[in-house]
Design goal:
The complex is a heterodimer of chains A (about 200) and B (about 210). Chain A is α+β, with helices and mostly antiparallel strands and about 200 residues long. Chain A has 2 domains: about 130 residues, 2-Layer Sandwich (Alpha-Beta Plaits); about 45 residues. Chain A contains 7 helices and 6 strands. In chain A, a hairpin with a 2-residue loop joins strand 1 and strand 2. In chain A, helix 6 packs antiparallel against helix 7. Chain A starts with a strand and ends in a 14-residue tail after the last helix. With about 210 residues, chain B is of the alpha+beta class. Chain B folds into 2 domains: about 130 residues, Alpha-Beta Plaits, CATH 3.30.70; about 40 residues. Chain B is elongated and about 75 Å long.
Chain lengths: ~200, ~210
């Protein structure tokens, strides 16, 4: 069992919601999905590779009959799955410090959510509703989301230079190469094993 | 459709685990034991099958009671949660899993109620569709690159850094000649296998304070 694979942490959070409140949350997610400006803080944090929220209505748990009993629930459930870089504490701290308003709009509909500020009760709440991951796979565990974004920039610039490399005279190639180095130099950070934080 | 973000598909499955009091150990424990032995590197089933960026398997024992005045309630079944971010769409991804790792799928999902096995592809796809939960909101900052494109880009990044470091102060001609050789080699190189850079960790739990 591990929530961590290389530089990525898998968080699983399950919280109960009164069914009438889930429609308000669906409305908020609809707006968040269609107004990209509202995602700016989330994007600027640069430490989430993928994240998703899934609302499970109380009568929508998969049922196959036979010996399985149908669920009899009063609450809908909000599932949150995040793949982030860094430690659990760094993640929760950053969420609390930078995204508190957005987080409150998402989780305020969940029962007993204390708010994301102050951070101590927020961490206690997340701790109580988090499930550990039994198996966690990453195709590129050595890379953070910043590494991935940088690698694609380097790839794009490399392909641009490669298209003209053969045709240019040597002195012009050097000028093009130097421009290439200037463009990619801040995107060459090395990838590798994650540091252990104590 | 919130399951799709660009070219990345967010697949979430909630599969009820068989509740059989005669099974020793119980089916949820058998899944957990099996998952604890699965490799994470290039021989991981999700590295062998194509198209998985990130995937997780979680046994959901029950829902959480968060305290008064909330009503306390419990699930009748335990569930296997499969959450992955993959290339393409649901059916093509699942078909790829069946084609490449049918035995691994059966070893995990045979502990789930109603699982038809991987030999009958239409039944398998139908089962997974019934277990699927639609994503309400999907956040994917890089959603236009496949797994292989990202693996190739990371390979290029490492190679370019090394090339630049070893070609400082070269003459123009030397630099251009070496770059052509480097460029040909890199462009012909296949993408590295997924999870090739998987590091063993001394600390495995990923506890709350890590």
């Amino acid at each position: 069992m591990s929530n961590i694979n290389g530089k990525v942490y898998a968080m699983n959070v399950v919280t109960p919601m009164k069914p009438w409140k889930t429609w308000l949350l669906r409305g908020f997610f609809f707006i968040l999905g269609h107004v990209k400006a509202l995602q700016t803080d989330l994007i600027n944090l640069h430490f989430i590779q993928f994240a998703r929220w899934v609302i499970v209505p109380r009568n929508a748990f998969p049922f196959f009959g036979g010996t399985q009993k149908r669920e009899e629930l009063k609450y809908d459930y909000l599932l949150f799955f995040s793949n982030f870089n860094g430690t659990w504490n760094q993640y929760i701290d950053a969420f609390s410090a930078v995204l508190s308003r957005g987080l409150n709009l998402i989780w305020r509909w969940s029962e007993k959510f204390p708010g994301s500020v102050p951070v101590t009760p927020f961490k206690s709440y997340i701790t109580s509703v988090q499930f550990d991951t039994d198996y966690y796979f990453s195709a590129y565990p050595e890379a953070t989301i910043n590494d991935v974004e940088s690698a694609h920039i380097v790839q794009r610039e490399f392909e641009t230079l490669a298209r003209s490399a053969a045709a240019l005279p040597a002195n012009e190639f050097r000028a093009a190469y130097q421009q290439f180095v200037l463009k990619v130099q801040s995107h060459l950070g090395s990838t590798g094993d994650a540091p252990e934080v104590f | 459709m919130a399951n799709q973000s660009g070219s990345v598909y967010g697949l979430t499955l909630l599969c009820p685990i068989i509740d059989d009091e005669r099974a020793i150990p119980s089916h949820d424990l058998q899944i957990r034991y099996h998952l604890s032995k699965l490799p994470l590197g290039p021989d991981s089933p999700f590295a062998v099958a194509p198209g998985t960026h990130l995937a997780r398997l979680v046994v959901l024992d029950d829902v959480i009671y968060v305290g008064m005045p909330t009503c306390e309630e419990h699930l009748h079944s335990k569930y296997l949660v499969f959450e992955c971010n993959c290339d393409g769409d649901r059916d093509s991804y699942l078909t790829g899993l069946v084609q490449h790792i049918p035995n691994q799928l059966d070893a995990i999902w045979s502990h789930c109620t109603g699982y038809p096995g991987s030999k009958d592809l239409p039944a398998f796809l139908d089962y997974m569709k019934k277990c699927q939960l639609d994503t309400t909101f999907f956040f994917a900052p890089v959603n236009d690159k496949s797994v292989n494109q990202t693996l190739s880009a990371l390979q290029t990044q490492r190679a370019v850094a090394a090339f630049i470091a070893t070609h400082q102060g070269c003459t123009d001609t030397h630099l251009q000649q070496d770059f052509k050789v480097f460029m040909d080699r890199l462009q012909k190189a296949p993408p590295p296998p997924p999870a090739a850079h998987c590091f063993a960790r001394a600390m495995k739990t990923g506890g709350r304070n890590e």
